[in-house]
TrEMBL record:
Subcellular locations according to the entry: Cytoplasm
Source organism per UniProt: Propionispora vibrioides
Family membership noted in the UniProt record: Belongs to the SMC family.
Gene encoding the protein: smc
Superkingdom of the organism of origin: Bacteria
Domain notes from UniProt: Contains large globular domains required for ATP hydrolysis at each terminus and a third globular domain forming a flexible hinge near the middle of the molecule. These domains are separated by coiled-coil structures.
Summary of the function given for this chain in its UniProt record: Required for chromosome condensation and partitioning.
Protein name: Chromosome partition protein Smc
Residues of the full protein shown: 3 to 183 of 1188
Subunit field text: Homodimer.
Residue numbers binding ATP: P33, N34, G35, S36, G37, K38, S39, N40
Length: 181
């Protein structure tokens, strides 16, 4: 089992201050008034997991996911979010009990990725997460409109979801890479 233990956000959307969310065992429910940032938490999670389409994060440009300022608060130049996973069961193929994935973006649009604080590529994050249930096609975060989208998708598109669930995405990606070389 791969458990999300903690989320740390700074400068992402409404999180102007460094914000930490601890996820205990069991189910976590986030409650709060409209506009208080509940959905921003799931956006943050999806973003670290590699979401590249700002529209899926309810924005249109990269600046929309960086804190844009409020009364008495200046806008920030960078957004950074980390997800801390409990890897004691070794689901992630890394020899660490805790794995932290971090993504950072600047107003220029330049992105940086880190695994356990070490610089890496987005591809390394996709490779790490493939077939863990958190990969690109696994849809660990399902938004309201996504349900309709899945129901209306073409069989070939829907197949990707099953391949991820079956744990063969990793091998398909490697095959694709090998054929390209
Ligand atoms: P609802 O109950 O209506 O779904 P919610 O708790 O899910 O609300 P969110 O959509 O997570 O609320 O948060 C929206 C808030 O985040 C808005 O107040 C919006 O101004 C703020 N916000 C979004 N992007 C930014 C940004 N780049 N900078 C500052 N604030 C932002
Ligand atoms: Mg919401």
């Amino acid at each position: 089992l791969l458990l999300l233990r903690r989320l740390e956000a700074y400068g992402f959307k409404s999180f102007a201050d460094k914000t930490e969310v601890d996820f205990g065992p069991g189910i976590t429910v986030v409650v709060g008034p409209n506009g208080s940032g509940k959905s921003n938490i799931s956006d943050a999670i999806r973003w670290v997991l590699g979401e590249q389409n700002i529209r899926n994060l309810r924005g249109s440009r990269v600046e929309d996911i960086i804190f844009s300022g409020s009364t008495g608060r200046r806008a920030l130049g960078v957004a950074e979010v980390s997800l801390v996973f409990d890897n004691t069961d070794g689901v992630l193929p890394l020899d660490f009990n805790e794995v932290t994935i971090t993504r950072r973006v600047f107003r220029s649009g330049e992105s940086e990725y880190f695994i356990n604080k070490a610089h890496c590529r987005l591809k390394d994050i996709h490779d790490l997460l493939a077939d863990t249930g958190l990969g690109r096609e696994a849809m660990p975060v399902i938004s309201q409109n996504k349900v309709d989208e899945i129901l209306n998708s073409k069989p070939e598109e829907r197949r990707l979801i099953f391949e991820e669930a079956a744990g063969i995405t990793r091998y398909k990606n490697r095959k694709k890479e090998a054929l390209r070389k």
